[in-house]
Amino acid sequence: MSNASSAELPKIVDPFRLAEHDNVLEGEIPLSALSRFRETVLGFEEGAVCRVKLSFYMDSERRRIVSGELEAPVRLECQRCIGPMDSVLISRFVLGLVTSDEQAQRLPKDLEPFLTVDFSADLWSMVEDELLLVLPPYPLHDRNECPAKEDLEAYEPGHSLAEPEKKSGENPFSVLAGLGKTKH
Predict the structure, then answer these.
(1) pLDDT digits (tens, 9 = 90+) for 51-97
(2) How far are the Cα atoms of 7, 62, 184 from residue 17, in angstroms, in the given order?
(3) For position 37, what pLDDT does the model report?
(4) What does the alpha-carbon distance between residue 92 and residue 144 come to, in Å, rounded to a whole number?
(5) How many separate helices (H) and strands (E) can be counted in the chain?
(6) Cβ neighbours for 159, distance < 8 A, ≥ 6 positions apart
């Protein structure tokens, strides 16, 4: 996707009409407007946006399709060090536009359904769903950049842990052995 600034992506559209005319929509969605997504990430910079490109078309069997690309900069919580880490979520997807569960069941297995209501679709909700799907289950800093790197290396095979200091060669129970020999 290009780095050129874009206008805000429309929220509600008629995706069937867009597919019939092979339309492409490009725009941005403010991450702060996506409440479900906002609750699942550690944060993002003020004014951060998700850049979106959606292509609407009809396939050879006259199914209406939307393929998309999106990119969003976010802050996640590293599961090694429990510290913040910046990441860019990227998704590429292809969805079949349907108006009922029956239509969704008839889609080929490689095509996920996108259920629309009365031939209108909430694009922001669709993008939010896709962002939620690409969130990593266990976000981790790159190993060499993680503040927990030294702790991790201490537990690796071949790493020598500091040996506890050895005291004199004297047996700590030798005092007890001597107690049995004394007379009272």
Answers:
(1) 999 999 999 999 999 999 999 999 999 998 999 999 999 999 999 99
(2) 21, 13, 107
(3) 96
(4) 28
(5) 6, 7
(6) 153
